[in-house]
Design brief:
Helices cover about 80% and strands about 0% of the residues. The protein has about 475 residues and is an all-alpha fold. It has 2 domains: about 5-185 and about 255-470, Up-down Bundle (Growth Hormone, Chain: A); about 200-255.
């Protein structure tokens, strides 16, 4: 392998390490919440904001982060995002009050959104050969898919062995390392001369719309889905989105050119992304709750139960998935993977109150690991296909927003379904554990339907072939050795 080629793969590992910190922070906090609550005196209601503050700014700033990368340089924005995330992680780890922790989590979300939005664009720039790009997307897809379950394991270990502060402090040395290595190895290059300016009105309306929508969704379970607050906020989010679409149709340099959604693979992969994320979040959170609250597992045992799925995902994402895509195109591996995931969730929907690891947990985990390992790479490749390099950051921001909104909405809906079913069973005289299990069964079944809908959408609408790269061939090795910004 040439030096240029080796640098490119090292640069990919740096991007993946940066993104891993971001993905971990969505789930790593879940296991530590009881400790944080006891230490800082949160109520049950205010505790939710340790998670929600991060989701709110993360979901809100993805599109803006991607567009800023396209305009001002993906490498520059990646460095800004990593710096903000690392400093905010230090703030979270040292927090001694509720306000400080929640404020630092919100800043983490902004940094995380920028990193997530531009990391995919940098991969598209680094890897222009379809086979190499499929491999690179496989590695990145594993980090995106596996990071959530690794977070559950790592959260359990750090909270059990040290304290909750370390789930944040562990990001600091990683962030500093990523920053130093990025300065040396990530492509900078010259930005193409462009008259495009930042669409400020579009940026403000879509960011506000996304943040209002996430706020409405994450509070809906507590306030009620048909409460005045929830319906009012969702109506406001829809109105802001309508204003945003009106602006984009008229402005000369739109934040999101609406023509992007006329590209078949881009539009399809975003719909699949919403449905798939809803199913994935159901898996991460609801199965962890079932294992902890029904089967009585410790945080560490929950993490270990996810390990087989992680290992399978790693095997597929780091090699097999790219070979499948090069052999069969995008459509078949995507649909097959999502069908396997749907089967895994459906199996969880029959896990009993006195569930057994080997019979009731492992088969589901194995199917979900296989499904995620096969499906993530084609979803990401499809989302980034058909777009010019100048819009790579935007396409990346759009698909990340789809995943984020699908995950937040899916989790809120499924948690609401589970809680409602549990309340009904309790009222009819069921025991606490069997009522909880009944609630999770309904949610897992709904998650299985989401994954099935994603499989059908991908199978029917996705173009099967792998699109050729848009970039000129002479860009293949150059940028990796030209770190000047």
């Amino acid at each position: 392998m040439s030096m240029e080629g080796r640098n490119r793969w090292i640069a990919l590992l740096i991007l993946c390490l940066g993104d891993l910190m971001i993905v971990l922070d969505v789930t790593i906090v879940g296991v530590a919440l009881p400790s944080i609550r006891a230490d800082l005196g949160f109520t049950e209601t205010s505790l939710a904001w340790v998670v929600n503050a991060y989701l709110l700014t993360f979901g809100g700033f993805l599109l803006l982060g991607g567009r800023l990368g396209d305009l001002y340089g993906h490498r520059r924005l990646f460095l800004v995002g990593i710096s903000a995330f690392t400093l905010a992680s230090l703030g979270c780890g040292l927090a001694t009050s509720q306000a400080l922790l929640i404020g630092a989590r919100a800043v983490q979300g902004v940094g995380g959104a920028i990193v997530s939005a531009v990391a995919l664009s940098l991969i598209v720039t680094l890897f222009t050969d379809p086979a190499d790009r499929a491999k690179a997307m496989g590695v990145f897809g594993f980090v995106a898919a596996g990071g959530g379950t690794i977070g559950v394991l790592l959260g359990g270990v750090l909270t059990d062995v040290l304290s909750w502060h370390w789930i944040f402090l562990v990001n600091v040395p990683i962030g500093v390392s990523v920053l130093v290595l990025s300065l040396r190895l990530l492509p900078g290059g010259r930005l193409p001369a462009t008259e495009a300016r930042l669409d400020v009105a579009g940026a403000v309306t879509v960011t506000a719309s996304l943040m209002v929508a996430v706020y409405a969704i994450v509070n809906a379970n507590q306030k009620g889905w048909v409460s005045t607050q929830t319906l009012g906020l969702l109506a406001l989010a829809a109105a802001l989105l309508a204003v945003f679409l009106g602006i984009e149709a008229r402005v000369r340099s739109p934040l999101v050119p609406l023509g992007l959604f006329r590209l078949r693979n881009v539009a399809t992969s975003n719909v699949v992304g919403v449905l798939w994320a809803a199913a994935m979040f159901a898996w991460f959170f609801l199965s962890a709750l079932y294992l902890q609250l029904v089967l009585g597992y410790s945080p560490l045992q929950v993490g270990l139960a996810f390990l087989p799925a992680n290992l399978i995902m790693a095997t597929f994402s780091l090699g097999l998935s790219a070979k499948l895509v090069m052999r069969f195109g995008l459509r078949a591996p995507l649909a097959t993977g999502l069908l396997l995931a749907s089967a895994g969730l459906a199996l969880f929907a029959r896990a009993p109150v006195d569930g057994n690891l080997a019979l009731d947990v492992l088969p589901s985990m194995i199917l979900l690991g296989l499904g995620a390992g096969m499906a993530f790479n084609p979803v990401l490749l499809a989302a980034m296909s058909d777009v010019e390099q100048s819009e790579a950051g935007l396409a990346s921001g759009v698909v990340n927003t789809s995943f984020m909104m699908g995950g937040a909405l899916g989790l809120a809906v499924l948690a609401s379904l589970a809680a409602s079913r549990t309340d009904t069973l309790l009222a009819s005289g069921s025991g606490q554990l069997s009522a909880l299990t009944g609630g999770y069964h309904l949610a897992f079944l709904a998650g299985a339907l989401f994954a099935l809908a994603a499989a059908v959408t991908g199978a029917v609408f996705l173009r099967a072939e792998i699109p050729a790269a848009h970039e000129p061939e002479d860009a293949i090795g150059g940028p990796a050795t030209a770190p000047a910004d």
